[in-house]
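G., the chain you wanted modeled:
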Amino acid sequence: MSAKSSKREQSHHRIVEAASRAVRRHGYAGVGVAEVMKEAGLTHGGFYAHFDSRDALLVEAIEHAGAISSAVLDERVAERTRETGNPLQALIELYLSDEHLAYPEHGCVVGALAGEMPRQEEAVRLASTQRVDRLVRRVAAALPESADPALPGVIAGALVGNLQLARVHGDNADGRAALASARQLLVSLFAAPRKA
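Predicted structure as tokens:
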């Protein structure tokens, strides 16, 4: 690999990193090319050397944000599962955590963007749908094999919806209280040990 291509790849990565934070923080419409390029430390004019369009940037940003947040969540769920012995409880508690409320730019793409996903152009909508499917599969993996096949989607929807509702209140006592109530109820409904 030449030094020139390496520098180009580093620049590309910085752009995608900046866009992945921006899209989770401000939504799809809040991702401006000029602002992303500035945050990446590059000039606006260099954008088209990396992407054919703003939508192409959004697709890469969603994929990157999803991969990073998934890896972090997987690691944290594994750690918490070792403590609780219950992967679904761990997932619910981490997804509906005060930290996830406070830092949307580092969290789940679906939790940040679900309400906006259906209105996007096809390529962006497809990349977004893949992240939704990934979240549903993550929930399914935390459930017993005997679980109703509809349950992973129901629980994923409850996680995303409750996170979004808490974010309407904000990172404050009301938002945290909304999350705490949702955590407690979802754990009691779906992750509490069943009596024989």
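The CA atoms of residues 28 and 116 lie 7 Å apart.

Shout if anything looks off.
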